[in-house]
Amino acid sequence: MTSFLLTTSETVAAAGGYDEIFLWSKSSALSTFRSPLDEHLGTFGIVRQENIDLVRLALGVFSADRSVRRAGGGSDWNARDIELTVEVGEPHAWAAHAPELASVIGFLSGDRWTFHFTQAELPSVALMELDEPTPDRTVLLSGGADSAAGALTAALRLPAGSTLQLVSQFSATSISPFQKDLVARIRTLAPGRTICHRQIALNRNAKRIDGTNFPLEASSRSRSLLFLALGLAAAQPSGGPLHIPENGFASLNPALGPERRGALSTHTTHPRFLVELQEALSKVGAHGLIENPFQALTKGEIFANVASLVGADEASAYLSASNSCAHTDARYSGVAPGSSCGVCFGCLVRRASFHASGIADTTEYLCADATGRVASFVAQKSIVEAMHDFVSQDPKPRMVMTMSLPDDYPPAAALDLCKRGVSEMRAFLS
Q1: pLDDT above 70 covers what percent of the chain?
Q2: Do the Cβ atoms of 151 and 318 come closer than 8 Å?
Q3: 269 Cβ contact partners less than 8 Å away, ≥ 6 residues apart
Q4: Nearest-CA neighbor of 361 among 292, 428, 275?
Q5: What pLDDT band is residue 263 in, cutting at 50, 70 and 90?
Q6: Whose CA, among 29, 30, 284, 308, lies 20 to 30 Å from 325?
Q7: In this structure, what are the phi and psi dihedrals at residue 116, rounded to the nearest 5 degrees?
Q8: Given this model, what pLDDT does residue 333 score?
């Protein structure tokens, strides 16, 4: 087991006692993290302490996730044993629900977690309320097509004069321009609404406090927990739910085959994860209301809804401006940052959704490059063959029975959703 500590104190960090120590202190040159965001979330205004604690826990989980290498990937995926200590406002309240939190986060990352909580330092400067309107809706905007559709739909459905808060988090700088461009397009397509964009970069440095390098694990399935925690902190002043838009087919995450279990799977918006996370957060007193407005829809159905709101041409331009590619490392192959491979799971479902909705896809995909300059990169990322195998037959009930659905999610509804999602993929690939 690897033990970690996330602290906001240089003194505590210097005392050691753990395998790895993360220091989050905006005022310290030794801070483990690069971010304009301080450890008390001061730029968010006055945030409930429990939501500050949640961001710290999520940052510690994400950083530990990135700092313990796995033995393998794909079908050789292994679970790790990770122990994390985090400083919070009420350690006893968090400790009482530590096993439940460990179970929820273990479902997300595929690991065995043990959490401990110690007393956090209070901010040395009084925090102030922001001179901003209270948002009527808060939506996570990753830059992907589903989040783009969710943000635009929310804006259009709010009455004139309303305020929409969009929360973005990024580590790859190539994604930031997509997020900003989508926000500009939303302001044009939904006039009369105030669109507040809170864009956050919060990343672990490559080096430890002592100057040596952290190990680097690339899978980082826990990144979504940090995104959710930041979104909930932003949504908390309004008391309303945080929207995390994701098509229901991807949320159920049916494995394409044995090779897609493990590192290539994700439970980011899985119904069970969202339900159990909300239950745990309510017990510790954090604002934890989360909704996926697209839980019952395929991606193609989401695209069609966008077209019904703004027209097919506007939908084409807007959705094509998003980025759904799972690979942000294309620049190392000599192509422009933010390029889309066209052959990963995210790209293939995206392309099938344009096809199913009858909306023109003007995205430039690397797989369509006629020069052959990036053919090797595309071949390494392609799951086209696996996808063909996956859609060759209709989903069966046994697929649904392995999905760990929450009690209030009817298996028949999940099966119907999977059949519709597979149908969209089959029509595109045939």
Answers
A1: 93
A2: no
A3: 224, 244, 246, 250, 251, 292, 295
A4: 428
A5: very low
A6: 308
A7: -130, 150
A8: 62
Tens-digit pLDDT profile for residues 370-419: 888 889 889 988 999 999 999 999 999 988 888 889 999 999 999 999 99
pLDDT digit string, tens, across residues 27-83? 899 999 988 899 999 889 889 999 999 999 999 999 999 999 988 655 456 789 999
Distances (CA, A) of 136 to 122, 192, 196: 30, 14, 11
Would you state the torsion angle of the CA atoms of residues 312, 422, 412, 272, taken in this order, to the nearest 10 degrees?
Answer: -90
Measured over the CA atoms of residue 378, residue 303, residue 170 and residue 76, the dihedral's sign is: negative
Query: Position 366: which residue type?
Result: L
Structure tokens at 164: 């929409």
Reading the block at residue 273, the tokens are 């994860």
- Report the C-alpha gap between 166 and 164 in whole angstroms: 6
Cβ burial of 170 (10 Å; 0-12, 13-18, 19+) is: buried
Q: Tokens representing 249? A: 């087919």
- Rounded to whole angstroms, the Cα distance separating 422 from 227 reads 28
Give just the sign of the alpha carbon dihedral 40, 42, 46, 52. negative
**Do 24 and 59 meet the contact criterion of CB atoms below 8 Å apart?**
yes
* Token pair in block for residue 395: 């989903």
What Rg do the C-alpha atoms of the chain give, in angstroms? 21
Q: Angle 312-320/299-310 helices, nearest 10 degrees?
A: 130
SS (H, E, C) 7-66: ECCHHHHHHCCCCEEEECCCCCCCCCEECCCCCCCHHHCCCCHHHHHHHHHHHHHHHHHH
Cα–chain-centroid distance for residue 160?
29
Evaluate if residue 13 carries a pLDDT over 80: yes
| Amino acid code (one letter) for 230 | L
Distance CA 52, CA 62 (A): 15
Query: pLDDT for 247-262, tens place per residue?
Result: 999 999 887 654 444 3
| Burial profile 384-394: b = 16 or more Cβ within 10 angstroms, e = fewer | bebbeebbeee
- In Å, the largest CA–CA distance within the chain is 62
Q: Are 78 and 70 in contact, with CB atoms under 8 Å apart?
A: yes
φ, ψ at 190 (rounded to 5°) = -130, 65
